[in-house]
Amino acid sequence: MSARTQPHKLLRLAPGLTLVVFLGPIVAGLAGTVLPAFGFLPALGGDGLSLHPWRRLCETPGFAAALTLTLTTGWGATLLSMLVATGMAAALHHRPAGRRLGAWIAPALAMPHSALAIGMAFLILPSGWVLRALSPWLTGWSRPPDFSTVGHESGWPIVLALALKEVPYLMLMMLGALNQIPAAAQLRAARALGYGPAQAWLAVVLPQVLAQIRLPAMAVLAFSLSVVDVAMILGPGNPPTLAVMVVRWLGDPNPRWLFPAAAASVLLLALVVASLAAWRAAEAALQAALARWAMRGARRPAIGRAADIAAGAGIALLALTAASMLSLALWSVATRWRWPDAWPEGFTGANWMRQAGSLAGPAATTLALGLAATLIALTLVLACLEREAQARAGQPSRSLALLYLPLLVPQVAFLFGLQILLVRAGLDGSFGAVLWTHLVFAIPYLFLSLADPWRSYDDRYSRSALALGASRWRVFWRIKLPILLPPVLIAAAVAFAVSAGLYLPTLLAGAGRVATLTTEAVTLSSGADRRVIGTWAMLQAAFPLAAYGAAVAWPAMVRRLRRWR
Amino acid sequence: MAVSALSLRSVGIAIGGRHLIRDLCAEIAPGECLTVMGPSGCGKSSLLAFVSGTLDPAFAAQGSVALGDRVLDGAPPEHRRLGILFQDDLLFPHLSVGGNLAFALPAAVRGRDARRGRIDAALREAGLEGYAARDPATLSGGQRARVALLRTLLAEPRALLLDEPFSKLDTALREDFRRLVFAHARTRGLPTILVTHDEADARAAGGTVLRLAPG
Predict the structure, then answer these.
(1) Could you say which of A96, A191, A193 has the minimum Cβ distance to residue B104?
(2) pLDDT tens by residue, A229-280
(3) What is the least distance, in Å, from the CA of A209 to any CA of chain B?
(4) To 10 degrees, what angle do helices A156-178 and A63-92 make?
(5) Alpha-carbon gap: B86 to the closest alpha carbon of chain A (Å)
(6) Model pLDDT for residues A183-237, shown as the tens digit of each residue
(7) Residue B28 near residue B191, CB atoms below 8 Å
(8) Which site from A66, A209, A496, A561 is most exposed, i.e. has the minimal number of CB atoms within 10 Å?
């Protein structure tokens, strides 16, 4: 037996350990949610099974409206994002702008959801930047108008804010899937047959991409149906979405609300499972329709214009993202900013100085949680990938669905039960408990972003180093890791950004006692002075953006230094 | 079907100040073939890309391409009606053999039965009767090459561009396929440009041979 087929003892433990770390809390948490949903929670006197929690849930005023709102915003955001991302890919693949797209969407990917939602609120509120810029010369208003945007009962701001994050994410997944097929050559062939670039992309490339982005698209759908922070910041208050309803009940001092909260969590889980099944069916129907469409042979130049419109919408979303970030930055340094002035009266560092004392603690906690989660996740993922490479026994396709599990299960559905278990174990509110819930999300994101580059490493580098007499340990540290440093750093930045942006896991596992920039910014967003919220959300966004920037800049700097020497 | 000649007028292609092709003029009559030969990097594939309208903007190109009295300069590739056969067959993996052919067949052929009939007839003629429902992945290399040719021809091109389409077939198949391609080009009166570095291809094409110097 050759040395290659026998991975190091410690490495052999890696996959099992990793699975326990990131799936353990989900399995335990789901059990802890389902039991109280059927009345079983001995600590609160529920020691038999009953449907009482469900009756309480159904009798809640506004329950039906909350259910509708959850479905319309979740599906609306997902369908809108898919449509825009597909249109952008179809319209831009043959244009120079398409090649630069990756650089445009990276900052949008790094922005935490809640910071983006707060920035968008600053834009779209009746007293927000958009109407300030248009008043009074265009609107004729000298005072903020009396209608609602943020908190509108239809939930459209939730849909818009989710699309800001999901369009870039889906674009990135599509670009990744494109690398698996000879898309450029196939597109040339389709165009030689008389099809315009957009129609060629939709008829030839999209059907091959759809299956490959199934899990990412499902993750988007599950997330949109169960998102909490964005819905709290931008959604209606009464009734809110189901997920927000659960979080409100959990925050109620009266523990009897735990029972309907558990039932609502299980209902949300069922909604997500049913929605994912519906998505799969819709994907199959779309595939069949695309094939029938291709076989009709109709060359339709109008498709190009339709794709251009979708791409225009996508570019408008990117612009909205940039404007949201800018509005956070402006408010954080504004002196006074009266309605309807388009700009603040002046700029000052005073807001930051005043907040510095209260920002420092949560900023340090955010940094510590992010760094610890990234380091642990990176160690586990590198060990798993190395074991796979050494044993050649990897079953990437089978483990892929497991990796997506934390992204498909609604966060409230397992965090609820996990919190109950943590309380019983006396661990709630501890740094370790919060760190563990962050690992549940950091590990899969880090794995998904690193697996492809790691697997496409040319192993002959390592083999030639081994042949020169270097040990396997030395080859890993001196050859393989340095060669793969750029994707490793990007993956680490992704994990850090995920940790820094997590709201609900930090809130529930931390029992409100572990304050990060994200938890504080979301709490403040409901009422504080915009200059105060601006500093918090700005700093919250700055952390992941800085991590991405460093991940990109570091390898480039190392290269440049080497050339100077 | 109206047939017309493909003409290249003073075509020049350069990259980074280096001239690959200078002042190339050619008139390819219907059914005739111009063979362009030369080592890799001499610009022969760039010439085909220029004619088909897919030349990378990194290249600087000048000159004009016309089909009969229709000048093609500036037209997007999908409006040029030039059939292209590539080195790879590029059959779309998500469509059946019949689906690939239906994708090429103009929509002017209406009705499911009429479209089916045209595709079945084309397959029969190429010795692939009954293959319409097959997945392209289950075909042999020679069969895939023939389906790719059928797909190109069903789109009713006005000229044919051959980008080394024989180079990946093994010797015995290569000869059969070559004969088939040129027979179709001649009977349909398609002016053809063949790019290759195989002398046997040039002999089989039987027309003018243009040898490009190494770039």
Answers:
(1) A193
(2) 999 999 999 899 999 999 999 988 888 899 999 999 999 999 999 999 999 9
(3) 10
(4) 40
(5) 8
(6) 999 999 999 999 999 999 999 999 999 999 999 999 999 999 999 999 999 999 9
(7) yes
(8) A561
Angle at B65 between CA B59 and CA B70, to 5 degrees: 140
Q: What is the ipTM of this complex?
A: 0.90
Rounded to 5 degrees, φ, ψ at B160 are -125, 130
| Residue-wise pLDDT tens digits, B36-66 | 998 888 888 899 999 999 998 899 999 999 9
* pLDDT tens digits, A14-30: 888 998 899 999 999 99
Measure CB to CB from residue B99 to each of A185, A188, A295 and give the nearest one: A295
The answer to whether B142 and B106 are in contact (CB under 8 A) is no
Pick A185's closest partner by Cβ from B88, B99, B107: B88
A297 and B104 within 8 Å at the Cβ level: the answer is: yes
Mutate to test the interface with B, among A186, A187, A210, A295 (most CBs of B within 10 A): A295
**Least CB–CB distance from B86: residue in A189, A193, A291:** A189
Average pLDDT value for residue range A283-299 = 95
Instruction: Give the distance from residue B37's alpha carbon to the nearest chain A alpha carbon, in angstroms.
Output: 22
Tokens of A369: 């949680």
Taking the C-alpha atoms of residue A332 and residue A440, their distance in angstroms, rounded to an integer, is: 33
The Cα–Cα gap between B131 and B125 comes to 12
Q: How many CA atoms lie within 13 A of B99 on its CB side?
A: 19
* 3-state SS record for B174-208: HHHHHHHHHHHHHHCCCCEEEEECCHHHHHHHCCE
Which residue, chain included where needed, has tokens 């165009």? A191
Is the CB of A295 less than 8 angstroms away from the CB of B106?
Answer: no
pLDDT, residue A555, reads: 87
Contact in structure between A120 and A203 (CB atoms under 8 Å): no
pTM of the model: 0.92
DSSP bridge pairs for B8: B26, B65
pLDDT reported for residue B1: 52
Of B165, B46, B148, B35, the closest CA to residue B90 belongs to: B148
